[in-house]
Every structure is written in structure tokens, then in C-alpha cells.
Specification:
- By secondary structure, the protein is mainly alpha-helical.
- The chain has one domain.
- The chain has two helices and no strands.
- The relative contact order is 0.06.
- The N terminus is likely disordered.
């Protein structure tokens, strides 16, 4: 074991916990009488803080990904509905065009029949 050459307050300041890390990966408090031990501990703490930050960023990016995928699914549904409506519009436009044509033909037939009928009535 190493000998302690600094007071308890300094050790408490160094003692950091990182709840995101497994217990076996937690930084082990240094042997404060060895400069290298303190440096390794500080480096370990720095890496643990970076790990926490990266883990937080990953979580945020995964949340964003889930939201974007949900939006993509919704956009695909909207695109399918638009395609369906465009097809229905095309079909109804064609049907309307046919009905207008038939209406015009029948109107002309009616007009001819009316003329024929008047001609017959005038002849009688």
C-alpha cells in the first residue's frame, strides 16, 4: 500500500464517481504520493467524462434517428396518399371528359330530334 502524503480533503476532491461506468471500469482513487498514479487517475477520470459525453451524444442521436424514421414512415404514408389521390383525380378527370362528350352528343341528338319533330309537325 502507498503512504498518504496529502490531507483527506484533497483525496475527496479527487474521488469522482461515474454512474455510467460499470463498477469494474470506475477510476480507482490514486496513490497520492505517486505523481504517476495521480496522473493516471486524472486521465482515467477525463476518459470517463468523455465516455459519458459520447454516451449522451449517442443517446441523443439515436433519439433523433427514431424521430426521423417516424417522420419518414409518415412521409411515405403521405406520399402514398398523394399518389392515390392523383390516380383518383386522373380517373375522375377522364370520366368527366367522357361524360361531357356523351352529354354534348346527347344534346346534339336532342336538338336534331327536336328539329326533326318540328319539321314533321310543320309538314302535317
Amino acid at each position: 500500500m502507498c503512504s498518504v502524503s496529502i490531507d483527506v480533503k484533497d483525496v475527496e476532491d479527487l474521488a469522482q464517481t461515474f454512474p455510467d461506468l460499470e463498477q469494474r471500469l470506475q477510476p480507482v482513487p490514486p496513490c497520492v504520493s505517486l505523481r504517476e498514479s495521480v496522473q493516471v487517475y486524472k486521465e482515467h477520470c477525463r476518459m470517463a467524462r468523455e465516455f459519458h459525453q459520447v454516451k449522451h451524444e449517442i443517446t441523443a442521436l439515436e433519439d433523433r434517428k427514431r424521430k426521423l424514421l417516424a417522420e419518414l414512415v409518415e412521409d411515405e404514408k403521405v406520399a402514398m396518399e398523394i399518389a392515390r389521390l392523383e390516380e383518383e383525380f386522373r380517373r375522375l378527370t377522364e370520366e368527366n371528359r367522357n361524360l361531357v362528350t356523351v352529354h354534348n352528343e346527347r344534346a346534339q341528338q336532342l336538338e336534331r330530334l327536336c328539329l326533326t319533330n318540328r319539321t314533321r309537325q310543320d309538314s302535317s
